[in-house]
Write a structure and sequence with these properties.
It is built from 13 helices and 9 strands. The chain is an alpha/beta fold. Helix 6 links the parallel strand 5 and strand 6. The protein starts with 6 loop residues before the first helix and ends with a helix.
């Protein structure tokens, strides 16, 4: 089935056909902007051999674009009526599977079983992500053991900014994203690109996960669990100086911590959000010795 020429009209007709009301109940804001759709597809860089996991297929605008380009597309949708809407494409799209369920509750084995992956094959995630699951979704899939190479996501502008934040504005979500991947904001997207328009701006973000070798080089021999241990302590009271948070959790003196911070070019008054990934790695090394 070809993409409709007028995405807004097609969306309105589909909502009427399935007796649906789009809205904020589950963060449902359907994409109606062809330019934004094109930007998502370009950013995903889909090849004929690619296997795509789409999350929140909705009425199927992005799904239609994906099935024309990829080897396999598995779209996961929670709402039964939207599963029905997506299923209308199955008869003409043998490379499409529609999986009814909650992406946050589906286990890895269930997701993998939907694909016919050859040895060494991987998965790309492409999604107009429902706003209300973005945080939980990212926490799961940024470090998932699934063979995911990259994620191209349309999500809230605020969340995209947190993913791509630089030292001074970092958060635990920034650390999670950047310890596992490279993050790039592709473009910002205004409310009028959706129906109905949300009350927030959005952004397309491309998250390219590190290979095993790249992540090993980044961690430089420091166990990831050690880095996370200290990062969680550091962010437990982000308004406090990091030395105060760490001293409360270790047996190190203020002088010992000051020496470690100086060695890593950190001010004694630094706060958790000011540290780069590389500095967290080195702190993890020093504090765990």
């Amino acid at each position: 089935m070809p993409l409709p020429a007028n995405l807004k009209r097609w969306t309105e007709q589909s909502l009427k056909q399935y007796n649906l009301w789009a809205g904020v109940k589950r963060g449902q804001h359907f994409l109606i902007d062809q330019g934004v759709l094109d930007s998502i597809v370009r950013a995903a860089d889909i090849k004929l051999s690619d296997n795509i996991l789409e999350v929140g297929g909705g009425l199927g605008i992005l799904t239609l674009a994906l099935i024309d380009l990829a080897n396999q597309v598995v779209t996961v949708e929670l709402e039964p009526v939207l599963v029905k809407a997506l299923s209308r494409f199955l008869s003409t799209s043998p490379n499409l599977k529609v999986l009814a369920g909650d992406i946050l509750k589906l286990n890895d084995e269930k997701i993998l079983s939907q694909f016919k992956l050859s040895p060494g094959a991987s998965i790309k995630i492409v999604a107009n992500l429902p706003y209300d699951i973005s945080g939980a979704f990212l926490k799961r899939f940024l470090s998932s053991p699934l063979p995911i190479t990259d994620l191209t996501l349309l999500l809230q502008k605020e969340v995209a900014a947190r993913l791509a934040a630089r030292p001074g504005h970092m958060s635990l979500l920034s650390v999670l994203a950047q310890i596992n991947s490279q993050v790039k904001i592709i473009r910002h997207v205004g409310p009028t690109s959706f129906y109905p328009p949300p009350q927030v701006d959005s952004a397309i973000v491309k998250i390219t996960r590190y290979s095993s070798a790249e992540k090993e080089q980044l961690l430089n021999g420091v166990p990831e669990e050690d880095i996370w241990r200290w990062a969680r302590i550091g962010y437990s009271a982000r308004r406090k100086m990091l030395t105060n948070n760490l001293q409360a959790a270790t047996k190190l003196s203020a002088a010992d911590l000051s020496a470690i911070f100086k060695k890593n070019s950190l001010s004694d008054k630094a706060r958790a959000q000011e540290l780069s990934i590389e500095q967290w790695v080195e702190l993890g090394r020093e504090l765990s010795d």
